[in-house]
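[User]
Protein folding is very new to me. Any chance you could explain this protein sequence and its structure tokens? I have pasted everything here:
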Amino acid sequence: MATDQWKIRLVRQSDNHVLAQVLIEVLIEMNVPKEGTAFTDPELDAIFDAYSVEKANYWVVCLGNHIMGGAGIAPLHDGPSGYCELQKMYFLPEARGKGLGNQMIQKCLTNAKSYGYANCYLETMPNMIDAQKLYKKWGFIYIDHPLGNTGHCSCPVWMVKPL
């Protein structure tokens, strides 16, 4: 399919149900533990509502009208001052390898800077090697401890990037 059919847009309330299904499908594919990860996030079924707060946004990647993934930024819960978190960046297999991850990170980081964040934090899983390569390409570095209180005690890979 032509890449011009791909688009990135802000999440809509009507996306909540389908987006939750997409995110869960990717979490299952990646063998993410059911406890202590995005699986148990209360906002998983209401992404639009969760990101309708100050200094937060969530974008979806669509092929035509079909949601194929997404990513967002939000304040890092109980984290150091000036930190946001890159959250729920997951794509279905069909959306991978097309440069959409680069576009999404650029959108998230540009937005984070415009909100005045000084640093961006993320958590991921050890087996998400391609995602980690992308994060490193964008200047994220590994740290040896989690930040904030994300509720993701089963995510043992932590990275941060100064903005």
Q: What stands out?
A: The CA atoms of residues 98 and 111 lie 22 Å apart.
